[in-house]
Design brief:
The protein is of the alpha+beta class. The chain folds into 4 domains: 15-78, no CATH class; 89-143, no CATH class; 170-225; 234-351, Glucose Permease (Domain IIA) (Distorted Sandwich). It is 36% helix and 16% strand. It has 7 helices and 12 strands. A hairpin with a 5-residue loop joins strand 11 (330-336) and strand 12.
């Protein structure tokens, strides 16, 4: 427990307060301040003469009073026993270690076993040893061995620069990875689209091939039930040709040139609608098919069927001739729809699987 220091044996001389330097033979009198002597002087620039004729202001007088009171207190403290100071346990237990407080640890002696030298205290001691160069250092930097605030600041700046550089590298890497992922996704999508387009094209080609095959099969089946009207022939005139030899101004059928007497066959099964002379057509036979279409066989040399007769595919219905308006023996074949409109026999025969 600390106690007040004992008062000085010799009282302080007044000249220590006022600055007077007495002679060696001059004696001092004890000055006992009273209420009258310490009363402040009223008014401005009013001074009082003291010993030796030296003027003193109220401020100097106040300083003397304070010094005298202090000296008296010190003298009184010599005669009083020390006073013990204690704190409750609840407060003393929670007080921090003085050695751990920055700037205070160096004021506490570490030689005592009750106050061990902590890391913070050692750091404070280090900073206190070089106060100019280590100003601004943190305790952690001092513990790490830093001795110069400039170098520590430089190290911090470099560390921040490295962190920023690392962050920029990480961002660039993330951006590159994102771009690579997007590129890979785009390539995968392109491949998927190409594969889908290829599959669609293959599917379309397969459908077209299947449709073509089905049409070929249908035509083959039709061809089994249809037949060309002449076995050996030469095509001489086609549908739609213009010329003065035809009364309509254009050719209305398909001509199969063959020798006179060449057999004429029923292209498809049907019923004989007419068989006889037809003017410019010469001897003509008309077969009505089941769908209402009509086949006209013209310029025959002879007829082999009669009206109302049923015929089947390939049956002989007459023979090639040169009767009517002709320039030589041939079969003039016309095809009419159920409504009576004449159409191209070539196209119609091809639709039935026949290729004249």
């Amino acid at each position: 427990m600390a106690s007040n220091e004992p008062a000085l044996d010799t009282p302080l001389p007044p000249h220590s307060l006022y600055g007077d330097v007495p002679g060696e033979t001059e004696s001092w009198e004890e000055w006992d301040p009273t209420e009258e002597s310490v009363r402040p002087v009223r008014g401005r620039h009013r001074v009082a003469k003291q010993r030796g004729g030296l003027a003193r202001s109220s401020t100097v007088l106040g300083v003397g009073v304070i010094a005298a009171v202090g000296a008296g207190g010190m003298a009184t403290a010599q005669t009083k026993p020390p006073v013990s100071i204690s704190l409750p346990d609840s407060i003393s237990e929670n007080l921090p270690d003085l050695g751990s407080l920055p700037g205070v640890g160096e004021l506490v002696s570490h030689d005592s076993p009750d106050t061990p030298k902590t890391a913070a205290a050692r750091a404070d001691q280090k900073i206190a040893a070089s106060p100019l160069t280590m100003t601004g250092l943190s305790t952690g930097e001092a513990e790490a061995g830093a001795t110069d605030a400039g170098e520590a600041l430089r190290a911090r700046i470099l560390q921040q620069a490295e962190q920023q550089k690392a962050g920029a590298i990480a961002e660039a890497k993330a951006a590159a990875q994102k771009a690579a992922a997007e590129k890979a996704a785009a390539e995968a999508k392109a491949k998927q689209d190409a594969a889908a387009a290829k599959a669609a094209a293959e599917k379309k080609a397969a459908e077209e091939a299947a449709a073509k095959k089905a049409e070929e099969e249908r035509l083959a089946k039709l061809a089994a039930s249809y037949s060309l009207p002449v076995g050996s022939y030469t095509l001489t005139s086609t549908f739609g040709e213009a010329g003065s030899m035809w009364s309509s101004g254009h050719h209305t059928g398909l001509d199969f040139a063959a020798p006179t007497g060449t057999p004429l066959k029923a292209i498809h099964s049907g019923t004989i609608k007419s068989a006889g002379w037809a003017g410019a057509y010469g001897y003509r036979t008309v077969i009505t098919l089941d769908d209402g279409s009509e086949l006209w066989y013209c310029h025959q040399s002879s007829l082999a069927v009669s009206v109302g007769q049923k015929v089947s595919t390939g049956d002989v219905i007459g023979r090639v001739g040169a009767t009517g308006n002709v320039t030589g023996p041939h079969l003039h074949l016309e095809v009419h729809t159920p409504s009576g409109t004449g159409i191209d026999p070539m196209t119609w025969l091809q639709s039935k699987g026949l290729n004249p």
